[in-house]
Amino acid sequence: MSALDFPIASTQSTPAAANAAAASFAALTARLDYMSAEDVNNVRTAYRFADEAHLGQIRNGGLPYITHPIAVAQQCAEWKLDAQALMAALLHDAIEDCGVTKPELIERFGAPVAELVDGLTKLEKLEFNTREENQAESFRKMLLAMARDVRVILIKLADRSHNMRTLGDVPRSKWQRISRETLDIYAPIAHRLGLNATYRELQDLAFQHLYPWRYATLTKALARARGRRRDVIKRVQSEVEAAFAGAGIQVHIYGREKALYSIYRKMDEKHLSFAQVTDIYGFRVIVASVTACYTAMGVLHQLYKPLPGKFKDYIAIPKVNGYQSLHTTLVGPFGTNIEFQMRTEAMHIVAESGVAAHWLYKATDPDSDASQRLGTQWLQSLLDIQHETRDAAEFWDHVKIDLFPDAVYVFTPKSQIMAMPRGATIVDFAYAIHSDVGHRAVAAKVNGEQVPLRSELHNGDVIEIITASVSSPNPAWLGFVRTGKARSKIRHHLKTMALSESQDLGEKMLAQALRAEGIDRERLSEDDDAHHATWEKILRFSGNRTRAELLTDIGLGKRIASMIAKRIVTLLAETGEKPDPLLMSRERYTAHESISQGALVLDGSEGASVKFAPCCRPIPGDAIVGYLGRGEGLVVHTDDCAVAKKLQHRDSERFIAVDWSDEPTRAFETGLLVTVTNGKGVLARVASALAAAEADITRVDMGQEPAQDATDLRFDVAVRDRIHLASVMRSVKRTPSVLRVQRAKPGV
Question: For residues 337, 342, 346 and 350, what is the CA-based torsion angle, rounded to 10 degrees?
Fold first, then answer.
């Protein structure tokens, strides 16, 4: 049952109500001329079953409840959906309202119809006016149901359309929530699937009930404008028809009036008065072929002058929801701007029905696959995002941007056209091509010129992505990507990479902790039957399902390696295995006497699982300690760091001994404070000295204060170790105008 419908039990229905139901079903069967006799009979059987199931139920408006499923089925018949969809539309409230079971539907109407009804029933149970998390979960379920079988959402949109048409029968206290939900969720989905007629109707009906006074005011203004411009529109139509007749082109011309909600939104967004909205009226010109579209445009441009910049060719480059037309705005009689849209009959069907046009084509030409691909890319991307995003709120965050596809059209180096949301960047484009291209992107060229990866795309750009096999996604990309696909792929990769690195770190930490207890990790094999039971007990003790999960938790700081190691020693002792005293004496006592683990060796290749504290920025050669933050992995501090000392006083059991590898794999960042005598070219000389000493400058800060005789320059530099840093500082100290050089400490 829809959230908008509340069937009222009744012992009997009036003759008038029964006649209304019968009449509406007769109207439905009149639209089924595209079906075979067998299909029509199946639909009639479903109607009889639904009519009997809903017997005695009355809608808020006083009509029998069966009139609602019939109205939903009529909308589906307009889209020429198949018999299964119409049967599901008639039965869509049967499971919830009438106690009919899914197995019963399978037995009576077959599994496909039962699956559609079941999918719709699950959607009906979703409440959108709950907390944001529940709304996100509801939305996720709806989109995934749609991705599996688009007929589910088509029937749901037909259901919502009829409920919005009869919203006046629902208590006024519910108008706000239902209308807002329609504007925020159902109308954008209709637009994304190319159902433009449904999209416009849902918007206008929601607008009417959300802002009744504004709707009434605009309706009156539009009626007055229609009266004033009737003569202009008639004159334009007659002149255009004469021009096409003279050119020998067969056309059908229809007037088009801008939807009320579109007018209101344009006035609101651009701060215009009603009189300033110039594109209220227009014409659709339906022609026989694509070539005739361009010929018709030529005829119109000879008749009236076109407005520069107002020509759009959506035939050569269709919109992402499959829409195709030529758009041009002309200056008509009395200086009136009038938009014309040229399209073929097939394009018109797609423009109004979008994804549903697949069934329309099947009805007229069973062999046609012209619209098979409509919306399928977006629907498939929903499943891809779902595969990588288990969190409902995150899924909603990824998808909602894609519901408003104000697209730009760009080209690959091989001239393939790709539609991207407005504001999309090079990284979005890379992920749209393939996940691996996105993951490995290091640079890009737009129209032959190298540009940053965060650059926005513009219509007509030719984009070449440069990749490197060793590259991986940068977390900073999440700050500027626009598409849900790119965002979900980056997050998924970063999570996977972080977990893998945390597992490696946990393995190292457990090995060190075991050595400190006199146990060689190599001896404690997971595959050894003798130790299998020990590992099972350890997992029960830690609450982890697998050894990999336990090691990851150790690396993330959720479990303490020394505690796990002590438990392992206890369990081994029960089986008769004793620690190695020699190994214990060699590993247990280190320079950090308060820390009862062997030192973990760091070389800089640990990745995201090990962070070097920004408060003290340790580099190789510094005496260091490691703090195992809860869920943060290992944070490395210098041993004289004030922050580390506070943490050690409060949380000493979470500290482990760490030491530098003899051969670090990368440079490490630290700060330099350089005091100079202010003068021309000083900054350039200091930077040159740093470069000569092979230190990479990552940041320069000259402060906000006006330059004095003596000025402090702060540099962030990447160096190999303390010896390299000392060499860098000597090089800078010898530079003319430099008074003092020191390593920047916290607070300095």
Answer: -30
> Given pLDDT bands bounded at 50, 70 and 90, which one contains residue 728?
very high
Residue 83: DSSP 8-state = H
pLDDT of residue 640: 87
338/329 Cα distance (integer angstroms): 6
Taking alpha carbons only, the member of 661, 642, 462, 630 closest to residue 553 is: 630
Angstrom distance (rounded) from CA 69 to CA 90:
5
Our CA angle for 137, 112, 403, nearest 5°, is 35
Buried b (16+ CB within 10 A) or exposed e, 26-42: eebeebbebbeeebbeb
| CA–CA separation, 467 and 429 (whole Å) | 13
What's residue 15's pLDDT? 52
Reduced to 3 states (helix: H, G, I; strand: E, B; else coil), residue 669 is strand
Reported as type and span, the H/E element at residue 50 is helix 37-53
- Nearest residue to 280 (alpha-carbon basis) of 235, 219, 325, 191: 219
Q: Given a cut of 70, is residue 533 above it in pLDDT? A: yes
> Which residues have a Cβ under 8 Å from the Cβ of 647 and sit 6 or more positions away?
627, 654, 655
Report CA 433 to chain centroid distance, whole Å. 16
- Categorize the per-residue pLDDT at 130 as very low, low, confident or very high, splitting at 50, 70 and 90: very low
Q: Is the pLDDT of residue 594 over 50?
A: no
Residue type, 660: W
Name, in order, each residue with C-beta under 8 angstroms of 676's C-beta and a sequence gap of 6 or more: 682, 686, 710, 711, 713, 737, 738, 739
From CA 331, how far away is CA 333, in angstroms rounded?
Answer: 7
Q: Could you report the per-residue pLDDT of 348-381, keeping only the tens digit for each?
A: 877 776 655 555 444 444 444 444 444 455 555 6
Instruction: Please tell me the distance from the alpha carbon of residue 458 to that of residue 520, in angstroms, as a whole number.
Output: 60
Mean pLDDT confidence for 650-676:
85
The pLDDT value given to residue 741: 92
pLDDT tens by residue, 568-584: 777 777 777 776 666 65
Specify the pLDDT at position 609: 66
3-state SS of 453-475? CCCECCCCCEEEEEECCCCCCCH
Q: Annotated active-site positions, please? A: 96-97
Q: From 538, 581, 599, 528, select the one nearest 563 (Cα to Cα).
A: 538
Contact 482, 448 (CB under 8 A): no
Domains of the chain: 8-210 (1.10.3210.10), 214-364 (3.30.460.10), 492-660 (no CATH), 668-743 (3.30.70.260)
CA distance linking residue 317 with residue 328, whole number of Å: 15
Question: Can you tell me the distance from the alpha carbon of 429 to that of 462, in angstroms, rounded to the nearest whole number?
Answer: 11
How high is the pLDDT of residue 620? 92
Q: Report d(CA 23, CA 29) in Å as an integer.
A: 10
C-beta atoms surrounding 137 within 10 Å? 18
Counted residue by residue, the chain has a size of: 748
Separation between Cα atoms, residue 395 and residue 414, nearest integer Å: 33
Query: Nearest to residue 274, comparing CAs of 307, 225, 228?
Result: 225
Q: Which residues pair with 326 in a beta bridge?
A: 313, 342
Q: For residue 107, what are the CA distances in angstroms to 14, 97, 111, 409, 551?
A: 32, 19, 8, 49, 51
Paired tokens of 149: 């079988």
What per-residue confidence (pLDDT) applies to 370?
43
pLDDT of 457-493, one tens digit each?
A: 887 788 899 988 878 888 788 888 888 788 888 888 8
Q: What is the pLDDT of residue 672?
A: 92
- For 37, 446, 462, the CA distances from 411, given in Å and listed in that order, are 48, 10, 5
Q: Residue 20: left (phi > 0), alpha (psi -120 to 50), or beta? A: alpha
**Positive or negative, the Cα torsion across 192, 193, 198, 200?**
positive
